[in-house]
Amino acid sequence: MIYVGEVLRLHKLWLTDNQKGKKADLTGADLVSAELTTVNLRYAVLRNAKMSASIFNYSDLSHSDLHGADLGAASLIGVDLTGANLTGANLSFATLTDANLSNANLRHANLGGVEMFNVNLSGADLRGTNLRACDMGGGNLDGADLRGADLGDSDMTRCHIPNHSGAILSDDDPRIANLKKNT
C-alpha cells in the first residue's frame, strides 16, 4: 500500500537534498479523486497512475513522467507541467485553465473536451493528440508541433500563434481550418 503523505514528504526532502529524501515514484498508483492542491511533485514518476477526478490545482508537476496516466476530468487549474512527459495520457474533460504545459510532450494524448483557457503550450509536442472539442481561448501555441493533431470542433479564439512562431501545422490538413481562421 502506498502512503501518499510519506511519499510527498520524502520527495520534498529529495528536492532539496537527494541524499536525504527519495524521488517520488507513484507508478500505477490509485489517486482517483485525490485532493493534492499545491503539492510539489516536480520530477516525480507517475507513469500509468490513476488520477481521474483528482484536484491538482496550483501544483508543480514540471518535468514529471506522467506517461499513460489517467487524468480524465481532473482539475489542474494553474498547474505547472513544464517539460512533463504526458505521452499517451488521458486528460479528457480535465480543466487546465491558466496551466503551463510549455515544452511538454503530449504525443498521442487524449485532451478531448478539455477546458484550457489561457494555457501555455509553447514548444509543446502535440503530434497525434486528440484536441477535439477543446476550449483553448487565449492559449499560447507559439512553436507547438500540431502535426496530426485532431482539432475538430475546438474553439481556438484568441490563441496566440504568430505566423513566425515556428508552430508546425500542415496546410492541407482540414482539421486545422478553425484554428487558422481564428488567429
List the keywords.
183 residues, little secondary structure, Pectate Lyase C-like, 10% helix
Could you explain how this protein is built, in words?
This protein has 183 residues and is low in regular secondary structure. The chain has one domain (25-183): E3 ubiquitin-protein ligase SopA (Pectate Lyase C-like), CATH 2.160.20.80. Helix content is 10%, strand content 0%. The chain has helices at 4-16, 177-181. It is globular.
Oligomer: single chain
> For the terminal residues, how far apart are their CA atoms?
49 Å
Residues in helices, as a percent range: under 10%
Number of helices: 2
Rounded mean pLDDT score: 89
Shape: globular
Uncertain segments: 173-178
Structural class: little secondary structure
Q: Count the E strands.
A: 0
Order of helices and strands: HH
Main CATH class: Mainly Beta
Question: What topology does this entry show?
Answer:
Elements: H1 4-16, H2 177-181
Short description:
The chain has 183 residues and is mostly loops. Helix content is 10%, strand content 0%.
